[in-house]
Design a protein that fits this description.
The chain is mostly helical. The protein contains four helices and three strands, in the order αβααββα. The longest helix is centred in the last third of the chain and has 26 residues. 12% of the residues are buried. This is Short-chain dehydrogenase.
Length: 132
């Protein structure tokens, strides 16, 4: 769960950084949380963790159709045509919401972007070398 949470935070960092980098281009990018959608996400867990996950889904989960509503709203709403660099949540009925406090750390998100670029560059160089 810790790794999952870190990956979601990284996605928000990337969204905010990309929104800054695209400012003024007319391209928009936003992050969202669709809600706790009942899915097979919990299928890889066992024991007490699995039981807790199943209880959370049972009492607080939403179906796939309802989970898609926030994504559809953010992707198609005329009100959001020029909105970029924001976070939306199903719990706010698809409206803008604050993301976690750490997600607003500009230095960390820029560093994550730079490290990712460096890793991609290394990977591309490796692929070119292997192709020769």
């Amino acid at each position: 769960m810790k790794a999952y949470g870190q990956s979601k935070l990284a996605q928000i960092y990337f969204t905010y950084e990309l929104a800054d980098r695209l400012r003024g281009t007319g391209v928009t990018v936003n992050a969202l949380h669709p809600g706790m959608v009942v899915s097979s996400f919990n299928s890889g867990t066992r024991g007490i963790v699995h039981l807790i996950g199943e209880l959370c889904y049972f009492f607080g989960g939403i179906d796939v159709e309802k989970g898609a509503q926030t994504t559809l709203y953010v992707a198609t709403s005329p009100e959001l045509v020029r909105v970029s660099g924001k976070y939306f949540s199903q719990s706010k009925q698809g409206k803008e919401a604050p993301s976690s406090k750490p997600s607003y750390d500009v230095a960390i998100r820029r560093r994550l972007w730079e490290v990712s670029e460096a890793l991609i560059d290394q990977s591309e160089r490796s692929h070119v070398a292997l192709a020769k």
